[in-house]
Design a protein that fits this description.
Number of helices of chain A: 12
Structural class of chain B: alpha/beta
Largest sheet of chain B: 6 strands, mixed
Distance between the termini of chain B: 28 Å
Distance between the termini of chain A: 33 Å
Radius of gyration of chain A: 21 Å
Largest interface: A-B, 47 and 46 residues
Number of domains of chain A: 2
Order of helices and strands of chain A: EEEHEEHEHHHHHEHEEEHHHEEH
Strand content of chain B: 15-25%
Order of helices and strands of chain B: EEEHEEHEHHHEHEHEEHHHH
Strand order of the largest sheet of chain B: 6-7-8-3-9-10
Number of strands of chain A: 12
Helix content of chain B: 25-40%
Number of helices of chain B: 11
CATH architecture of the largest domain in chain A: 3-Layer(aba) Sandwich
Oligomer: heterodimer
Largest sheet of chain A: 8 strands, mixed
Structural class of chain A: alpha/beta
Number of strands of chain B: 10
Chain lengths: 327, 334
């Protein structure tokens, strides 16, 4: 069952250099209980897409100027709709937990606030519920730590606090924007394990936004890969990783050094990341693409289903190039 | 060449920072950021120094280059002891010893052109490049790092992140160093650009005979570029070996956990592995555990780990690891 459906989403930002289209016609679905990875490098539009889902695109610079987002049959772009669902139905975890927590309130009170505000819980009930959540997200000695302030927690523990707050009202969709990017690798492993455990316990959908191809490989069912505001490839994770159809995807895969096997010279993607203020005509990836030809300069490629692969789509005029080259 | 002395030799290096009381700013203790670190880098070699935040890896670099003062120990570079060198002599040595930083934007003067940024070092060391050769030399350097020589008059903000890091590399090369310290030099870059810069660093090493001290938290990047690797935890090296040996036969439980925690983009290619997920965080260097620093997170820890600091020594035939159980772990791994 489709829980979230994004169609032709467009988000613009006014900058000193002009208007940039941060998200340019993005479409994807998230099924109930599914984990979807929203992948991309800086400037790809992945975080802005998440902001649009939650109705928190920074104003007045940014605005959603096209497309639709429907959540469980409801129009999320309708005035006030996202705000009504935020926290209850759709929750979010950010990269930097310290800036998302209030430094002057005790952690237990901040988690409990969710129950007091949304469920009308008493102070005592909220405190008990906060303790229960802190234990569920694996904070050691939770009963002692209820009355600590955010700065007294380490980065990994703060992220657990954020996850506890996000889960407080049993959301059906959790959006995690680079949840482990600021953390050390051993702590990252803990947090990813926690997120996947909670997701299966709760049966919620999870949208993981990241630039790291490896972090999501073990956990995501499907991948939505973005470049310069557009979705360039989408499909089941393993299929996209093993049979990348977009030259950008296969280029990313070849850019990551391996942790075992021979140490071959890396094959980077040529050129620089796209400048959103002066995107090329046609396909945005064209200046960096080895398969680009005249068609790519003239026609912006649509996200098309690949022959023989019903759930795998790529926005490329020459998907066979990447497919045959890499494998 | 075992008889040839290494380009850089660090012995029992210790660096500490004073802990001050909040009101009177009295020194109430010392934070031991680097607690006795030793390693060698041969000319043209690359040592990868890995560790998580708070491991002291950046402090090692800053102490070698003289940005922090060593509390004890020795740093011998190209035959000269740096920790006791007078300032004037240090300036001469520093020519051969350059550094590339993580954030290429913060480390480039926004009001200076690329040419001014690169040529600045020649004002301090006029003997390297005479003034009438500055322009030509800047063009050569830009070309070498893969930038358009015609962009020498541009300012840092006109370049992308990857290009800025290339400017930082060109500046480091301006004085023709023998050793370049790369402190998280590719960490801030997008993966597609990171691969370009890694290839560039490899080319420069080959063409110019550079040696690198390559500091990073990303293990796959370190594996890719290093000849030898040293793993740091709480101010100490807990294991060191050739790149191949360390990644195929890690001995220290921390190294094993670290390698196990690295996300694999193609997990289905490998035999199913038991992922080691260690609990907790790196303890504060201000209040390190007694004995072995890793014991609070280690699944093999016993009573003696709380009392005896394990030495970084070679047990049996394998490579050095600072763990009381390294012999046993070596047996299990082989």
């Amino acid at each position: 069952m489709t829980l979230l459906s994004v169609r032709d989403l467009r988000v613009e930002f006014a900058t000193s250099g002009g208007v940039v289209t941060a998200v340019d016609g993005a479409s994807f679905d998230v099924d109930a209980g599914e984990t979807v990875a929203l992948l991309g490098e800086s400037g790809s539009g992945k975080s802005v897409t998440a902001q649009a889902l939650l109705g928190i695109v920074p104003k007045p610079a940014g605005r959603v100027c096209g497309g639709s987002i429907s959540y469980d049959g409801r129009d999320l772009l309708a005035p006030g709709a996202a705000k009504g669902l935020r926290g209850r139905e759709i929750a979010m975890v950010f990269q930097d937990p310290l800036s998302s927590l209030n430094p002057v309130f005790r952690v237990g009170a901040q988690i409990g606030e969710m129950f007091r505000r949304h469920r009308g819980a008493s102070r005592r009930e909220a405190r008990a519920a906060a303790l229960d959540l802190m234990q569920r997200v694996g904070i050691p000695a939770a009963s002692k730590r209820l009355d600590d302030y955010p700065h007294q927690f380490s980065g990994g523990m703060r992220q657990r606090v954020m996850i506890a707050m996000a889960l407080a009202l049993s959301p059906r969709l959790l959006i995690a924007d680079e949840p482990t990017t600021a953390l050390d690798v051993t702590v990252q492993a803990q947090i990813m394990q926690l997120l996947t455990r909670l997701q299966s316990e709760e049966g919620m959908s999870l949208v993981l936004i990241t630039h790291d191809l490896g972090v999501v490989a073990d956990v995501a069912d499907r991948v939505v890969l973005m470049y310069a505001g557009r979705v360039v490839e989408t499909g089941p994770l393993r299929e996209v990783y093993e049979h990348s159809a977009h030259p950008y995807t296969s280029g990313l895969m070849a850019s990551v050094p391996a942790l075992d096997g021979p140490r071959d010279r890396l094959i980077p993607i040529q050129g620089s990341p796209p400048d959103l203020l002066s995107l090329p005509s046609g396909c945005s990836f064209r200046p960096r693409c080895q398969y680009a030809d005249a068609v790519c300069a003239d026609v912006e490629p649509d996200l098309r289903q690949l022959s023989g692969r019903p759930t795998h789509r790529a926005a490329c005029h020459h998907p066979e190039g990447a497919l045959t080259h890499a494998h | 060449m075992p008889t040839e002395s290494p380009l850089l030799s660090v012995r029992d290096l210790q660096t500490s920072f004073p802990m001050r009381s909040s009101v009177l700013r009295r020194t109430v203790g010392q934070i031991q950021a680097v607690a006795g670190v030793s390693f060698d880098i041969p000319a043209g070699g690359t040592l990868g120094l890995v560790g998580e935040s708070g491991s002291g890896k950046s402090t090692v670099a800053r102490t070698i280059i003289g940005l922090e003062k060593a509390r004890s120990g020795s740093v011998v570079f190209d035959g000269e002891e740096l920790t006791s060198l007078p300032k004037a002599s240090m300036r001469r040595v520093r020519r051969q010893l350059q550094m590339i930083f993580q954030d290429p934007y913060a480390s480039l003067n926004p009001r200076a052109t690329v040419e001014q940024i690169i040529a600045e070092a020649w004002q301090i060391h006029p003997d390297v490049v005479p003034p009438n050769r500055h322009r030509a030399e800047v063009r050569d350097l830009l070309e070498r790092v893969g930038l358009n020589p015609d962009h020498a008059e541009r300012y840092p903000h006109q370049f992308s992140g990857g290009q800025r890091q290339r400017i930082g590399i060109a500046r480091a090369l301006a004085l023709r160093p023998k050793l370049v310290i790369c402190d998280e030099a590719v960490s801030a870059l997008d993966v597609s650009v990171q691969a370009q810069v890694l290839n560039l660093l490899e080319d420069l090493r080959r063409d110019l005979g550079l040696a690198y001290l390559f500091i990073a938290h990303d293990l796959s990047v370190v594996r890719h570029i290093s000849d030898r690797v040293a793993v740091m935890y709480l101010g100490r090296i807990v294991e060191t070996a050739s790149q191949d040996e360390l990644f195929t036969r890690p001995l220290h439980p921390y190294t094993q956990a670290l390698l196990s925690a690295v996300p694999d983009p193609k997990p289905w290619d490998k035999p199913a592995r038991e992922q080691i997920i260690i609990g907790g965080d790196v303890p504060s260097p201000a209040d390190p555990p007694s004995g072995c620093g890793f014991r609070t997170r280690c699944w093999k820890a016993e009573d003696r780990c709380a009392h005896d600091v394990p030495e970084l020594t070679t047990r049996l035939e394998s490579h050095p690891a600072a763990c009381h159980f390294a012999t046993e772990l070596a047996g299990a791994a082989s």
